Amino acid sequence: MAGETEIRELTVELGERSYPIRIGTGLLERAGSLFEECGFPKKSPILLVADESVVGLYAGKLERSLKDAGYSVATAVVPSGEQSKSLAQFNDLITEALEAGLDRRSTVVALGGGVVGDLAGFVAAAYMRGVRFVQVPTTILAHDSSVGGKVAVNHKLAKNIIGAFHQPEFVLYDLNTLKSLPPREIRSGFAEVVKHGLIWDAEFTSWCDRNSDKLLALDDEALGHALYEGCRVKSIVVSRDERENDLRAILNLGHTIGHALEAVGSYNQLLHGEAISIGMVGAARLAAKFGYGEELASETERLLRKFELPVRIPAGYDTDAIMSAMQHDKKFTEGAMVFVVPKRIGEVEIRGDVQAAWVRDIVEQLKGETG
Amino acid sequence: MAGETEIRELTVELGERSYPIRIGTGLLERAGSLFEECGFPKKSPILLVADESVVGLYAGKLERSLKDAGYSVATAVVPSGEQSKSLAQFNDLITEALEAGLDRRSTVVALGGGVVGDLAGFVAAAYMRGVRFVQVPTTILAHDSSVGGKVAVNHKLAKNIIGAFHQPEFVLYDLNTLKSLPPREIRSGFAEVVKHGLIWDAEFTSWCDRNSDKLLALDDEALGHALYEGCRVKSIVVSRDERENDLRAILNLGHTIGHALEAVGSYNQLLHGEAISIGMVGAARLAAKFGYGEELASETERLLRKFELPVRIPAGYDTDAIMSAMQHDKKFTEGAMVFVVPKRIGEVEIRGDVQAAWVRDIVEQLKGETG
Ligand SMILES: NC(=O)c1ccc[n+]([C@@H]2O[C@H](COP(=O)([O-])OP(=O)(O)OC[C@H]3O[C@@H](n4cnc5c(N)ncnc54)[C@H](O)[C@@H]3O)[C@@H](O)[C@H]2O)c1
Ligand SMILES: NC(=O)c1ccc[n+]([C@@H]2O[C@H](COP(=O)([O-])OP(=O)(O)OC[C@H]3O[C@@H](n4cnc5c(N)ncnc54)[C@H](O)[C@@H]3O)[C@@H](O)[C@H]2O)c1
Ligand SMILES: [Zn+2]
Ligand SMILES: [Zn+2]
């Protein structure tokens, strides 16, 4: 049996929609009793939606635990990759839910990374106008996507444009599932962990800096702490602004440039974490325009390099294409150019007065310099 | 110009999601100033979703009023009929919204009956995880569907199975638009008006009884009163139980049998109001099983006949098919057979102890007797 570490628990405070996040090893095996504790009714079938890369490895454990507790479970497999976040895949899952007899008291469980979490979450949000939802994230990046209730699928013209706010009943983060992640996915996931430090917590940022080796080696104890702290920052922000009226936008640090890079690379060159890593360096350089410390950019860059993340725009990316992808990003409300800009490590602000020319300069720099 | 009647207004009380319903003549022409009063931002484009049967008659007036007030409006036309409540049509409208540049502060406006209201409402619920929504109902039945925030599309295996609760910002009910309704749609719409009387208000029920002729002739004054009272009952019920945990289920009077009849008729034989008219007679006959007055059934039947609505199951409907369609209805939570049963005119109760054999008997009666 894999080493047993402490189970860490925290609560996303959202009034009557509050929910716990549990992080530790061996949690899949205990899912059944958690469902019982939460009072999920046994007569209502559960739909388990699993990424095809993880279904063979972990779905069996989860199913067994649920069935042993007396639940009936139907499992639907979703092809790996961003293209599964589509209305077609959504419709197929609704068919599976109907065929499995899911009723208003049923639960949809997502087992996988952000793709399966976002997709299954939208199924849970829309099936019979909303049923229970449980997140069982299996990537490091999904410490971010599984918390906060944003669920969505893509449209051919825009990512995440069709969705809902639908909070899970709980998040079950079994560290054992992360062991099978490809190294590149591991590094990409840490970009969001680092982001949570940079926007909110200087102490945690410096802890990440000191523990990067342990983290990259997936040391259970370090990993548990990092995911706990990442989830904690995310949940504080979401608690204060569930529907992104103001504060929640700080979670987009690095995402304005990052999303543009993903789009220009047709979503198959840079991983999400890699793109926002470059984006965070860009945002840190923007800080200097507002008179914040020059060393912010070099510090940010040094930290991301420790996680073996890219900090320069790869060759072949066209500046005009990047700039125009940014104009289409939905974060530009009413045409104003809005950016999350760091003030110091652990603190950011949302600025609506960012000039496109500055951004273009920085994009050019990040292309020109050798990484 | 069509006769100007008093504008009736009522509020659906839902805390910060409360909204007004305005009923009267000549309201389309005033839409622009209402949008302004509500503070809808002028920079954010509006998507007007119109039923193809009404677009030529009324969309121009609405567009002009909005444009005169300084709004930019894109109009999308939806084919008439239930088959438009599909994910395919939903996806097309998302495309139109993106192409028209709708942002997070934009509004989706539904101009049509329940089909367009439900479809455009789900677009508003899901586009960018939710934008503003305005209902401009053009059928009598839509006094029901435009209030209460239930929005949905159909799946090939089940009606209304994909949806959300998404309340409108307001409902604008222009009586002038009802003048072009086909007579059969008029009668069908009054079935839901009568239903609102039967479940909540004996006095209003008796008023309907006395004014059926004026109503069928679409007399503005009588129509305004009937739609006001229908909306009032609906909004009281929705205010007390927005998400159908308990009370809201009383709105399903006549719908258990009604939905089964619609399904068995492949949704192209009976109109919704016609089906629930028969269903309400069935529910009233069930009342006798619980010791409530025998005259309830004959009274209900007499009233519905005054609105020229069907009160018997047409020839060719198979009892087994009706019974099995009822078992699939999502209102049968966990296999129990739940029915809304009238106690007296103006009061109903939700009973979970209805035996299938009773229902089967009543279905047989409603088939056997000559209407
Ligand atoms: N909802 C939100 O708030 C939010 C936040 C951030 C990102 N996202 C979304 O999350 C998605 C990205 O998430 P992701 O990075 O987890 O991507 P992902 O779900 O595609 O997973 C990455 C890859 O790892 C594989 N995989 C997953 N778990 C594995 C495991 N345990 N072992 C081996 N392989 C495994 C997957 O098959 C996939 O190929 C994007 O669609 C993004 O839009 C959403
Ligand atoms: N959301 C809810 O709470 C709720 C409640 C009840 C019904 N519904 C839904 O409403 C739908 C039925 O609504 P409906 O009866 O309004 O049907 P509808 O929208 O199909 O309209 C009926 C017919 O009248 C035509 N029409 C509409 N307005 C017209 C006008 N002013 N002049 C001439 N023709 C006009 C339409 O093209 C259509 O052919 C169903 O899909 C049902 O599921 C929803
Ligand atoms: Zn991200
Ligand atoms: Zn109805």
What does this structure look like?
The structure is a homodimer. By secondary structure, chain A is of the alpha/beta class. The first copy, chain A, is globular, with a radius of gyration of 20 Å. In chain A, the strands form three sheets. Chain A has a seven-stranded mixed sheet with strand order 1-2-9-6-5-3-4, sandwiched between helices. In chain A, strands 7-8 form a two-stranded antiparallel sheet. The first copy, chain A, has a two-stranded antiparallel sheet with strand order 10-11. Chain A has helices spanning about 30-35, 50-70, 85-100, 115-125, 140-145, 185-200, 200-210, 210-215, 220-240, 255-265, 270-285, 295-305, 320-330, 355-370; strands at about 10, 20-25, 45-50, 75-80, 105-110, 130-135, 150-155, 160-165, 170-175, 340-345, 345-350. Chain A has two domains: about 10-180, Rossmann fold, CATH 3.40.50; about 185-370, Dehydroquinate synthase-like, alpha domain. In chain A, a hairpin with a 2-residue loop joins β7 and β8 (about 160-165). Chain A is built from 14 helices and eleven strands. Mean pLDDT of chain A is about 95; it is low at about 330-335. In chain A, α1 packs across α2 (about 50-70), α3 (about 85-100) packs across α4 (about 115-125) and α10 packs across α11 (about 270-285). Chains A and B meet through α3, β7 and β8 of A and α3, β7 and β8 of B. One nicotinamide-adenine-dinucleotide binds near residues 148 and 150 of chain A.
